[in-house]
Amino acid sequence: MPQLNPNPWLFIMISSWLIYSLIIQPKILSFPPTNPPSEAPTAPSKTSPWPWPWT
User: What is the CA radius of gyration of the chain?
Assistant: First the structure.
């Protein structure tokens, strides 16, 4: 059963995760956020019940 042979696929998976973790992720995280969170408290929105026609 060739799918149980981890010889090429284990190396590809580990190397791709290392590339992502060590190279790509720090570059993405260095960008400033486009919409920083605000410190103002949000008021709860007032909702009204839906008028169902069969009730």
Answer: 25
Burial of 16 (0-12, 13-18, 19+ CB in 10 A): exposed
> Does pTM top 0.90 for this prediction?
no
Query: Could you state, in chain order, the average pLDDT of each consecutive group of 10 residues for the chain (55 residues)?
Result: 73 92 90 80 80 77
* Interatomic CA distance for residues 44 and 52, integer angstroms: 24
User: DSSP class of residue 1?
Assistant: -
Q: What's 13-55 look like in SS3?
A: HHHHHHHHHHHHHHHHHCCCCCCCCCCCCCCCCCCCCCCCCCC
Token pair belonging to 35: 């919409």
